[in-house]
Design goal:
mainly alpha, two-stranded antiparallel sheet, 2 strands, binds zinc ion
Length: 164
């Protein structure tokens, strides 16, 4: 899913454990894989080089597409942090800190995936294996409209449960 969805859901999950930030971080981190297991839409990352023989072993092609992808990801990332901050801003600083930490933890697996594409270390590979396995359960290709609409709906449902 897109980073904004991972961020807001991660923030919401971390807010469930206000007195235990470590548990909150872990729960938000795990929420990433739960969300990725749901059939969903993602925007294209053109600079990601797929490897048809070994799908786990893709890489990154640096160039013009990489700059465009970087901008897309950066906007998505900032939107995730800003929304998480604003949604959980009404109860003061502690809530906002938890929200930002949860947002970070929720998006973190995608940062690790990117790091894996570049560095390919053993540790990153074991996380990438899990990430890849859950992400490939059912692949769908909805239009951009339905893709975004469904992720907004997921955010709304999670916030409804957490904020009620
Ligand atoms: Zn992911």
């Amino acid at each position: 899913m897109i980073l904004t969805t991972h961020a807001v859901v991660g923030a919401a999950v971390a807010e469930l454990f206000p007195s235990n930030p470590i548990l909150g971080f872990c729960a938000a981190f795990l929420s990433h894989f739960v969300l990725d297991a749901i059939p969903h839409w993602d925007y294209k990352i053109k600079s990601h080089k797929k490897n048809p023989e070994d799908p786990l072993n893709g890489g990154v092609k640096f160039g013009k597409d990489f700059i465009i992808d970087l901008l897309k990801v950066l906007i998505d990332l900032i939107l995730g942090f800003v929304l998480s901050f604003l949604i959980f801003s009404k109860d003061g600083l502690k809530n906002q800190e938890i929200a930002l930490m949860g947002a970070f933890a929720g998006m973190f697996p995608d940062a690790l995936q990117f790091a894996y594409w570049i560095f390919k270390t053993k540790f990153l590979k074991s996380i990438q294996k899990i990430h890849f396995a859950v992400h490939q359960i059912i692949e769908i290709k909805p239009s951009v409209f339905w893709g975004i609409f469904s992720q907004v709906a997921i955010i709304a449902i999670v916030l409804f449960i957490v904020l009620k």
